[in-house]
Design brief:
88% helix; rod-shaped
Length: 113
Amino acid sequence: MRTAHLAPSPLMRPAALAAVVAVAVVLIVLITGIFLLAQISDLSANLSRLTVQLRTLEAMNQKLSGTNEALELTNAQLRATNETLTGVQQRLDVMGTDIRKMSERIQRSKLLF
């Protein structure tokens, strides 16, 4: 019995095998490149959105800084007013005490007459 020799497949030749490997590598590199480009595009869009949000937050921060300065000025004015009112209250308390003393003296003097 004779065994038939099969002819070697054209893919088994070294040059053909190298070409198949090269095509596979090119396809892998191409697919990876497309994936990376899509990722870069997404990152670029995200950075654009973040830039807009950053500018909005910076504008808000600037407005809030102005508001904060106005509130600090108002607070300082209120502290000064409070100190003035405290002094006035102390004087009124003294006056109230004096008025009570005078009223008592007047009452006593009426009793004497």
